[in-house]
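This protein record is not my work; I was only asked to verify it. The record follows directly below this note.
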Amino acid sequence: MKKLSLALFAISMMAMASLAQGKANYSGVWKLDAAKSTFEGPMRVDSITLTVAQTAKDLKVDTESKRNPPASMPAGAGQPPTNMPPGAGQPPMGGPPAGGPPRGFGGRGFGMMGDGSVTYSLEGKETKVEMDGPNGKIPVIYKAAVETDGSLKLSNTRSFTGPMGEITTTVKETWKLSADGTTLTVDREATTPRGAQTSKLVFVKG
């Protein structure tokens, strides 16, 4: 028993040392623990699943979410009819919702990536992509950095033309792993012309 305890202690220390040296690996399938998460505004997401693949050069994040309709709307309201093709009636992947910038979880997906796939460079490079929006192309700039404590700093900035003119939205996230690597905590701040919203999202490894 003593040897087992010492072995477990050594493994725990090695995991913590790895995080401290910036060698944390976020790869895996992560599911939102809504009960442990805190957020501003109405929670309209039933579930969020992140599938993460990390290498020395980049971080690929696939996001899938299921949304709840507002309390005043019947089940299924706001969703495309079942006889429409996938994605019909929805904003473009990662783009702003129709009618204005994203607000909390009311938009499509996680806000940081939207439902779909995003790849961040871990070599200090910006990644710029263009997405189809309701009024044309929307440029989006993604950035990522690995901190000395092993945490990740992710951000995206996008600009598009709305009814009131040019609109810029910025989302910043800090990702942190627990010492045993089974819990991912994401501190998120989304800034739009309507103001800033902060959230703390807790994911468990699936």
Q: What stands out?
A: The chain is about 10% helix and 45% strand. Residues 59 and 141 are 15 Å apart (CA to CA). The helical segments are 2-20.
